[in-house]
Amino acid sequence: MTTTNKQTVQILVDLCAQKGIKRVVVSPGSRNAPLSIAFNRDPRIECYVIVDERSAAFFALGLSQKSGEAVAIVCTSGTALLNYAPAVAEAFYQRIPLVVLSADRPTEWIEQDDSQAINQQQVFANFTKFSCQIPTEITCEDEAWHVNRTVNEALNYATSGRKGPVHINIPLREPLYGIVEKTNSAQRTFDQFEPESFLSKETISDLKSRLPQSPKIMILASFLPNEMKEKINAAISRIEKISNVVVLAEPISNIQTANAITTIDRTLNKIQSEEAPDFAPDVLISFGGSLVSKQIKTFIKNNPPKEHWYIGKGETHIDTFRQLTALIQLEPAAFLEQFFAENAFGESEYAKLWQRKEKISAERHSDYMNIAPWSDLKAFEIICKATPEGSDLQLGNSSAVRYGHLFSQRHLGSVQSNRGTSGIDGSTSTAVGAAWISEEITTLISGDISFFYDSNALWNKYLSPNLRIFVMKNGGGSLFRFIPGPSSVEELDDYFEAAQELNIEKVANLYNLPFYRSNNAEELAAILPKIYESHDKPVIIEVNTPRLENDKVLKAYFSAIRG
Q1: Predicted TM-score of the model (pTM)
Q2: Around Cβ 502, how many Cβ atoms within 10 Å?
Q3: pLDDT in tens, 133-151
Q4: SS3 per residue for 355-366
Q5: CATH superfamily of 372-562
Q6: CA 505/CA 455 separation, integer angstroms
Q7: pLDDT by residue (tens digit) across 100-145?
């Protein structure tokens, strides 16, 4: 078997394979040729070749999001690396172990007007757990040891504690295409072992002492890594029967227990201002990434708890509600199992109070949806009901994820969205990556601006026939029509909503993909059975909704919930 003659790359690739990296997304280039050759010729690694670096990085994020495993991305030198930035930032805040491997010019040629050369060291310093550069060449044993140690350290950082992206910069000197026979000697690896997560009796006692008599406890969860799903659902199932405890969980948390309230915004809309003190928690226990629901953030800030405990391994002091009293460095499931197993809280009506309100809001929701006119909201109802049992849902950002959170998604295998930084720029690429390694149907619901922004997501060979892409063609960024501020200024159409009419069918034709269109509820309902039939390619569905009516329908919906 042959490989590159660059010894630094030989060491790096062997360590990646030994430490569990199975998938590498490569963007073509010349300076990264040794990396491309070495990864491609290693039978332990599956390589994907995607030209657009921005799309490639989001595709890799989707692979990691779905698998829970570290994925590497490889690019050439210069601005190619900068195109990774949006996905790297998203991975950092979404706690996803993305391993960035950037080829570079030799160090002595940086800042010397050499072509395709920029200062690449520490370029993602604010969005990576670890950044390093390895030597250009190995001329002695110490340098070989240095490469081995540094790569081991980087890969350990990516997959331990609060998982996240790392960046290894790899200077390479020409010639770049030399080939040698691969040796059988394996690189030395060292693993990082973490202690079992547990609370001491003293810590449990201290936390218990902070609680009032029969406390009202709210557990609030936003998005979590996919691999946490089983443990967190098991832990929540055991404690949600406690009468003092209510669980509010956004759908992208993938908490799907029987009593968890997953439609937070519509439930909150049924709570009148004079009732708020009864629903306000004494103790708030939160975990996961940034919340989608602005309403719950406002509710907690206006009705502050006596205690707010944020749970998460390796997290910073996250004080979203300006009430933080404790940061507990444990995985959420481990904390919930231990703390609630050790304590009794008396009886209260707190959980039932929330459950009754949720039931009423569900009834009001159903009543309104029965008469709702054609709109984004109505289209979401029809699509969400049609998504197959156990399938995966990817929600685009801006209005798509907010609409998606108004509907129960308990029948799904998983619900994901790029809510780390909440950008619209890579939603399709992420869904394409996640769908490629999923055995289930993956449905992406995207806005039209987001879809066109990331249309290069379809410019690759890795398009799963199980992918269904619904594009809400409402003529622009519809979110700006129903949030306070932009909807009241004359610049709304051009500067915020970016109103436009682009042809989605031509994008489907460009990539030779099946295409459907619906203009009303009847047409959408009629084509859905065909859409979810077996296909040999992904399917794109254009859903035309009235741009100037969607915000009115949504406002009427919330008025109907309030009653």
Answers
A1: 0.94
A2: 13
A3: 999 999 999 999 999 999 9
A4: HHHHHHHHHHHH
A5: Thiamin diphosphate (ThDP)-binding fold, Pyr/PP domains (3.40.50.970)
A6: 12
A7: 999 999 988 888 888 888 999 999 999 999 999 999 999 999 999 9
